[in-house]
Amino acid sequence: MKQFITLIIILFSFYHTFSQVHVFTDPAYRAEAEKGLDLTYSMDFDKADAVFLKLKNKYPDHPAGYFLLGFNRYWQIYMSDTMKELYPEALNYLETALKKNEPLEDDPSYYQEFVFFEFMSHALMARLYSLQKSWMSAVNSARKIISPMKKSLKLVGEAPEFYFIAGMYNYYVATYHKAYPVVRPFLVFFPDGDEALGLEQMEKAGSIKNITQHEATFFLIYIYLDEINQPAKGLRTTASLYREFPKNTWIKVDYGRALYKNKKYEEGYKILSEVESDFQSIPGHSTKNITTLTSRYPTFMMIKVYHYMGLLAMYKDHDFRKAMDYFELSNKMARIADVEQDNYLAGNEYYKGVCFDNLSQREKAIAAYKKTLDMEENSMYKDDAKKYIKSPHLISQETNSSSR
Prior knowledge:
By secondary structure, the protein is mostly helical. The protein is about 70% helix and about 0% strand. The chain is globular, with a radius of gyration of 22 Å. Mean pLDDT is about 85; it is low at about 10-20 and about 400-404.
């Protein structure tokens, strides 16, 4: 059941964007909206709020301003993960957007706009509920977007933003059942997907000037780096977004990850070390949870930073003790940020096992691999952990350290 819920959320939660009909064809409005979105992507959340509030006040009966305010809050939450205080405000903005959107349904000239906001608002609510692990609420929101989703697929080509929606849909419907066969029976309710077409559509959305351009690029990063193992494309895509938004530390960290996965170890270590240095300059960084309310360097992000610095210590320097120190720092950041389950935590334990193997401490290695198997978010490491319980995992035998 959880896997099906996750599929629904993937299909319907990534599309935090809007179409260009009526107010969106107004050059002044579009310029202000794009200015606000650029501020969101630059992690200037307060400044983005000011822009979106201005738009809301100018068009108080239109869903756009309320949706954009909810979108801005979503990104603050997403980059810090555990900011419970922002959830009610974000959800309230989205609920208001849906109410403001209802009257548009009866006006044919607003068809694209109505479909888009109906889809986007429920999708973003599903994503917020999933971050809270409120699975039934997430399913309820996802259920409400099936109809506008199907309508959106018929609008591809009428506005460039729809390439992004169609691309995400085609890619994930075509690929998700391979990773989770249990969801295959549920996919009979959806039109067939096409992996190649989906990637082509997202690339198109990312190459055309439109409001979904950066969102398309953002999700292509994760597909190329983490799902289909095309690190060269992942690096190209990440570098493009990093050049556009150098102040976004989350994207900077992904750029460091991309360099690591392309075995550009020195460059990757330099990028991640810069992030670590800036984080360590924050008073209380080692004891309190830093969030995006006060900093571009949230504690939650450092879980990922220290994990990859550990991998770089392993594969760049073969310094396995230093690598384990980084993995422990990653675990410490998770405790401070109140994160109990995460694939990076399972990865930290698994790679500690690899480090122990390469330090000829076999019993400790086996214990680490077994602990990995006991962790919930371990799907990326389960098979390898079982394998290396039986025989040591030596770095000299590693054929492709860039796969994770």
